[in-house]
Amino acid sequence: MLAALIAFRQFQIARNKLKLDLFDKRMEVYSAVREALGNIARQGNLTPEQEIQYSQGTRSARWLFGPEVSNYLDKSLWHKITDLELHNTMSKDSESPEQRVRHIQERAEIMKWMFKQFKEFDALVEDYLTLKH
Q1: Other C-beta atoms lying within 10 Å of the C-beta of residue 94
Q2: What's the CA angle centered on 27, arms 25 and 32, to 5 degrees?
Q3: Exposed / middle / buried, residue 62 (Cβ in 10 Å: 0-12, 13-18, 19+)
């Protein structure tokens, strides 16, 4: 009886250790995304180095989160990051005033979308980052 109790407790400890390890790995991805969003909010863009940090920081997301989170990071958020860079460049380099204005407006819309992503991303990953016993 005592041996069974000890074995059960060891199983619980091992399971909780696995949950903590998984939480830590997921938190690394979460931090990479929040860092990128914070840089965009502060600077209005990501530097090439920050883009690499985002890419490296989110690389393991497809194995740590469900497909919804992975698709969000690889498609929705990353596409908006690259669109933002395009509009940043084109708003400075456009020859016609109309094109410049259009790129500035598009950039503003993307920035509004980016600011909403702090809450949207938190809601998307909330279930994965809740430690349950």
Answers
A1: 16
A2: 105
A3: middle
